[in-house]
Design brief:
The structure holds two protein chains of two kinds. By secondary structure, chain A is mainly alpha-helical. Chain A has helices at residues 2-27, 31-57, 61-90, 103-110, and one strand spanning 101-102. Chain A contains four helices and one strand, in the order H-H-H-E-H. Chain A starts with a helix and ends with a helix. By secondary structure, chain B is mainly alpha-helical. Chain B has two domains: 2-48; 53-160, no CATH class. Chain B has a three-stranded antiparallel β-sheet with strand order 1-3-2, with helices on one face. The longest helix of chain B is centred in the middle third of the chain and has 30 residues, at 54-83. Classes of the chains: A mainly alpha, B mainly alpha.
Chain lengths: 111, 161
């Protein structure tokens, strides 16, 4: 019973983080900032959700799958966002006009 | 030796995923694992002597909660910026230098940076990482490196180098 309650609380927290990530996706100005919201909030939110599922179901086929998937999400999500950010930058997507610095563009011009 | 280590690790993950010791599942697991190790084994950076070293495993166990703590902080930080009416951001791409040398350590550093406060790894060249930062402060490469990578490097060095 205790683990069930804790699990549901963690699932709710995870969904709340997912929601904040989605709000960020809409509100932030450019690709890179949106990726920030998408990777951080949504990764942690999803990991929390899966961990909550593990707590509710315990050590069995469902719980362990959820736990392993949380690990995969934690590794795959930053890798994916890194690929997207790099691809966007190489593809010529500009930073938001309010950005203060872009060393990456400056140094690539020199080469 | 490398392939045996990879095989054991992947097969372990398979067993956990299927969570069953039925012969059909185990045989399918052996076939799939052999296929994956055969096809992609070369790409994967894996040294059995390093992976099973207790000191490294100990530091890995220390690193996980330490890292998760910063991930939670990162989330609260980004969440705050997202719901604040004025959207307090000051984004930019900065360059940092790392003293880590192995590919594995750099991969983990890059992923850790991506998941922590307002920073996102855009590219890696040798020992330089380009980081998109949602709120840039500091003036030069040294300050940026300290602020972004400083808290992870000592532990990652103990795990991977």
């Amino acid at each position: 019973m205790f683990w069930d309650t804790l699990g549901y609380i963690i699932i709710v927290v995870g969904v709340a983080f997912d929601l904040l990530g989605c709000i960020g996706l809409v509100r932030l100005p450019d690709v890179y900032n949106r990726l920030q919201a998408a990777t951080k909030c949504v990764t942690l939110g999803t990991a929390f959700l899966l961990f909550g599922v593990f707590l509710v179901y315990g050590v069995n086929a469902i719980g362990i799958k959820a736990l392993i998937c949380a690990g995969f999400v934690l590794i795959a999500s930053p890798t994916g966002s890194h690929a997207l950010a790099r691809g966007a930058h190489k593809g010529g997507v500009k930073l938001w006009e309010g950005s203060v610095i872009d060393t990456y563009a400056d140094e690539n011009k020199l080469n | 030796m490398k392939f045996i280590g990879e095989f054991i690790m992947l097969f372990g993950i398979w067993l956990l995923l299927t969570w069953s010791l039925a012969p059909a599942q185990v045989i399918a697991g052996v076939v799939v694992t052999l296929l994956v190790t055969g096809l992609a084994g070369d790409i994967f950076v894996f040294k059995a002597s390093r992976a099973f070293n207790p000191v490294r495993i100990f530091w890995m166990i220390v690193y996980i909660p330490y890292f998760l703590w910063y991930v939670v902080l990162a989330n609260l930080d980004v969440a705050y910026r997202v719901i604040h009416p004025d959207l307090p951001i000051r984004p930019g791409i900065v360059k940092i230098q790392t003293s880590l040398n192995t590919d594995m350590a750099k991969t983990f550093l890059a992923n850790s940076i991506t998941l922590t406060p307002g920073t996102l790894t855009v590219d890696i060249k040798e020992n330089e990482l380009y980081i998109h930062w949602i709120y840039v402060h500091g003036k030069d490469v040294k300050e940026w490196s300290e602020a972004i990578a400083g808290r992870f490097e000592p532990i990652l060095r103990r795990i991977f180098e």
